[in-house]
Design a protein that fits this description.
- By secondary structure, the protein is mainly α.
- It is built from 12 helices and 4 strands.
- Strands 1-2-3-4 form a 4-stranded antiparallel beta sheet, with no helix packed on it.
- The chain is rod-shaped.
Length: 344
């Protein structure tokens, strides 16, 4: 009897074991095996992959975490027509834990979401992918800016050099033209024209304006000039030459002609009250003035009449010529000016 019972138990156990052997044993700590899924890369063309339920809920989960869908989506080969996946998607064949439809680990934010989350923590706004970055300085331009030296301060000597350079570029008179003009004015005599060129009046306290700033011995006569009034006897006893020129009497002294105020009160027409340099040949002042006017007219500085009178238009032309040649602007016929004109 015991043997029969033992035999029945053994058969029951054998049947139970056979039944259990036919059923698959689930692995410890893992879910029951599911049917193998086909990734998007393995899907046949024309049959879009069906997203699983967890993947369908993924966009909502990503929105709750602050992730946004990136713009650079492209259509993968093998995916369904018209279906776009993010361009930053990882290859479907990369070994990874359980992934969603896009190939990213389930529940993990995309690289774009990570970058946006970091920038939000820093208080920055994510620029759109199409935004252009500001141009960066190239090494060449950066080096040029770094090595650019600031302009050096100009010293008084440097200013003189600048004036000399400006003068070197100025138009010079033609020596042959100068000699031709001088020969034409060999017998020139000026006539008083008070309507066109007003006469100056005697002022004993008058000083030549700006002459205190004119440096050099060639300008000493202008700095020291003081109008004086004397009779004919005084002038004759002090100077060898006193002549009536252009409506007024002048006396000659060491290369300059000066107005002889008081020599003849009836002949005191002077267009300019000051020294007029003519050189050591003692040529009449009106002839020298006419030569200067004609040469300046030839060079485009003087636009008035060649009248031998040192009036306002002639003095303006002299100032322009002196400035262009780096000379002291005396607005008068002085030794440096006459020398540069080739008449000294």
């Amino acid at each position: 009897m015991k043997k029969l019972i033992s035999l029945l138990i053994g058969c029951s156990l054998a049947l139970a074991g056979a039944a259990l052997a036919q059923q698959p044993t689930p692995s410890k700590g893992k879910r029951a095996p599911e049917k193998p899924r086909t990734t998007e890369a393995q899907q046949p063309k024309g049959k879009p992959a069906k997203p699983e339920t967890p993947a369908a809920k993924q966009p909502r989960a990503m929105k709750e975490r602050g992730a946004t869908t990136e713009r650079g989506a492209t259509t993968e080969p093998g995916a369904g027509k018209g279906r776009k996946t993010p361009a930053s998607q990882e290859p479907a064949t990369a070994p990874a834990p359980e992934r969603d439809v896009s190939g990213q680990p389930a529940g993990a934010p995309t690289p774009g979401a990570k970058q946006q989350a970091q920038e939000r923590r820093k208080g920055m706004k994510t620029p759109p992918p199409s935004a252009k970055a500001p141009p960066k300085a190239t090494p060449a331009t950066a080096g040029a800016k770094a090595t650019a030296a600031p302009p050096a301060p100009v010293s008084p000597a440097g200013q003189q050099n600048v004036q000399a350079n400006v003068g070197a570029k100025a138009k010079k008179p033609d020596p042959q033209k100068v000699q031709q003009i001088k020969s034409q004015h060999a017998n020139f005599r000026a006539q008083p024209k008070p309507q066109q060129v007003p006469a100056v009046t005697f002022n004993q306290s008058r000083r030549i304006e700006g002459s205190e700033r004119w440096q050099g011995p060639q300008y000493e006569v202008f700095r020291s000039y003081r109008p004086e009034r004397h009779d004919q006897g005084w002038y004759r006893s002090h100077y060898n030459r006193v002549e009536l020129i252009g409506g007024g009497y002048y006396f000659w002294n060491n290369g300059y002609w000066y107005p002889a105020w008081g020599y003849d009160p009836s002949a005191e027409y002077y267009a300019y009250d000051g020294p007029i340099y003519v050189g050591h040949r003692a040529e009449p002042p009106d002839k020298v003035i006419a030569d200067v006017q004609a040469v300046l007219q030839e060079m485009g500085y003087y636009r008035g009449e060649v009248d031998g009178l040192l009036g306002p238009l002639t003095r303006e032309a002299l100032t322009a010529y002196q400035a262009d040649n780096g000379l002291t602007t005396t607005a008068a016929i002085d030794q440096p000016t006459l020398d540069t004109l080739g008449m000294g």
